[in-house]
Amino acid sequence: MNTSIYDKTAKGRDEIATRKYQLAPRLRSLLVLIDGRRTEEELLRNVAGLGLTGAALDELLEGGLIVLSTSYATMPAAPVADLAPAAVAPAAPVAVSQAGQFQALYEFYNKTIKSTIGLRGFTLQLKVEKASSVEELRELRMPYLDAVQRAKGNFAAATLAEQLDQLLDERPAQART
Q: Are 114 and 35 a contacting pair, CB within 8 Å?
């Protein structure tokens, strides 16, 4: 049983929104189903009627439309783990640090909105997509945590708040020193 989990990249989300890369209709159908929660086996079972196989996933991977994601159990912790090596590098320029922080926050929001809030987080997801700065992502903290609390309860909200605060506070402190 293959338990690989895939998620869309920014390029993949762009394709869904604008059809910019003119993906074949069958592959686009598969791309629409990829949500960072379904296993490879589940995805392929859902598109079996279209004649798609693992090669279709490989094609989306090679095209940069999807990435191999982490498992459900470790998904919220992944952005923090990805951030750690960059946070240790004190010689990095401030602009690089802010870009890295923006990317880490963007990925954190995208992965956790999907896994905790689901479709009810669609509006919040759009706000994340429109954000162009760390400050704009910072402003989404309370609406995000309120939505997580309503969907999954206080414990999940507190856990994600701790991880989000770490992402929000770690890099700006370095930039100020």
A: yes
